[in-house]
Amino acid sequence: MLYFYISAICGIGGGIFSSQFFKEHSLGLLGDFFTGFLGGVTAHTIIVLTVGGSAFSLAIVGGFIGGVIVRVAFSIIRQRMSSDS
């Protein structure tokens, strides 16, 4: 359970970190927080299911990268939805 929390926190950090590079497609602080959390939790689940175990380095790196990926994906989706209108 500790690794889950680490992945979630690092995912939040990744979501907030990536917002610095995508300022024109901001989701707001709450959106960055939520998408980062989702990415961290998803990355944790994938790592546990594929690797079969956890480690601090996997939890930290996986959570951070997962947070960045989900945050960027939501930014792209939001941009595509607003450009279609």
Overview of this structure, please?
The chain has 85 residues and is an all-alpha fold. It is 82% helix and 0% strand. Helix 1 (2-18) packs across helix 2 (28-51), helix 1 crosses helix 3 and helix 2 packs across helix 3 (56-84). The chain is elongated and about 40 Å long. It starts with a helix and ends with a helix. The model has no long low-confidence stretch (mean pLDDT 81).
Kindly summarize this structure in a few lines.
The chain is mainly α and 85 residues long. Helix content is 82%, strand content 0%.
How far apart, in Å, are the first and last alpha carbons?
43 Å
Radius of gyration using CA atoms only: 13 Å
- As an assembly, this protein is single chain
Derived structural class: mainly alpha
User: What is the N-to-C order of secondary-structure elements (H for helix, E for strand)?
Assistant: HHH
| Overall strand count | 0
Summed over residues and divided by their number, the pLDDT gives a mean of 81
The share of residues in extended strands comes to under 5%
Shape: elongated
- Unreliable stretches: none
- Kindly state the percentage of residues in helix: over 70%
Largest sheet: none
Helical stretch tally:
3
